[in-house]
Design brief:
Helices cover 42% and strands 19% of the residues. The chain is α+β, with helices and mostly antiparallel strands and 279 residues long.
């Protein structure tokens, strides 16, 4: 699938691929991640070792060549299944990209968190194969479309519920709410605000937002603030400065939210980036 790194170490490391698309390769030992949630699809392939995690009440194990597909906002952890540690590649896909490619249908759900679906694997592979070069815009967009279609098919195979009718969800209102959140990351936002902006009942809007984008409006706001803080820390800003610039009340608030979301503290994450393998 990809070049094998000649890198074996007991030190956990994280390497972020070049370009704007959030893709990582990592090597982890022991208990790598505390229980946490992402507001993105987390889709990866195990390269070495045994990648173990708890997901929806059961322990899952992904072996080399295995595919992990975590739904947005689902609690999970991560650890090495053996003393040897594990290495993997993962891409984080924003739910609106998948949802838009599916024409307004709710997000596909892979129940077990792992999948052996060959069509889905073939759709994931182009996104994880070439790590030394950034993905071109059209290349990424085409790959996301193929991934969305494969996710939809794989989810349908494993579901007896069928697709939700599109008419049950107000896509335009949810999209307006999402745009409003992006424009006001540094401000307090309430469901009443979103109702006023969209003209859609606040509780129906909350339901639609979750169905179409995979998380609640508040979690979405928090994740966008964390994105900003993480980008600031990546280029050298202190944790305290990143917290202030990203509208967290203080450094402790950022640290708590960061660990809840990524399963590690900001300090651990910064150190793991620094220990990543030379390319």
């Amino acid at each position: 699938m990809c070049k094998t790194l000649n890198h074996h170490s007991d030190i956990n490391w994280v390497y972020q691929a070049r370009g704007d698309v959030h893709r990582i390769e990592a090597y982890m030992t022991g208990v790598a991640y505390a229980p946490h949630r992402h507001d993105t699809y987390t889709i990866g392939i195990t390269l070495e070792g045994v990648q173990s995690f708890d997901y929806r009440g059961e322990t899952r194990h992904s072996l080399p060549g295995g595919m992990v597909v975590l739904h947005p906002d689902e609690l999970h952890d991560g650890r090495a299944g053996t003393d040897a540690g594990f290495r993997y590649r993962t891409i984080y896909i924003e739910p609106p990209l998948i949802q838009s490619a599916l024409g307004g249908r709710p997000l596909p759900f892979i129940e077990d968190g792992i999948s052996s679906d060959q069509k889905l694997f073939n759709a994931v592979l182009p996104l994880l194969e070439e790590y030394d070069q950034p993905l071109e815009t059209l290349e990424y967009q085409d790959a996301v479309y193929d991934l969305a279609a494969a996710l939809g098919e794989a989810a349908t195979k494993n579901s007896s519920d069928g697709d939700h009718p599109i008419k049950l969800f107000n896509y335009n209102a949810a999209q307006l709410a999402r745009q409003y959140i992006h424009e006001r990351l540094e401000h307090g936002i309430s469901l009443e605000d979103l109702e006023a902006v969209t003209g859609h009942d606040r509780w129906q809007l909350s339901r639609d937002f979750r169905a179409l984008f995979g998380t609640s409006p508040h979690r979405y706001l928090m994740m966008r603030r964390l994105d900003k803080a993480r980008n600031l820390m990546r280029v050298g800003h202190s944790i305290a400065d990143a917290a202030f610039a990203s509208a967290f009340s203080d450094q402790s608030h950022l640290t708590r939210q960061f660990k809840k979301t990524y399963g590690m503290t900001p300090r651990f994450w910064i150190k793991a980036l620094g220990d990543g393998p030379a390319r």
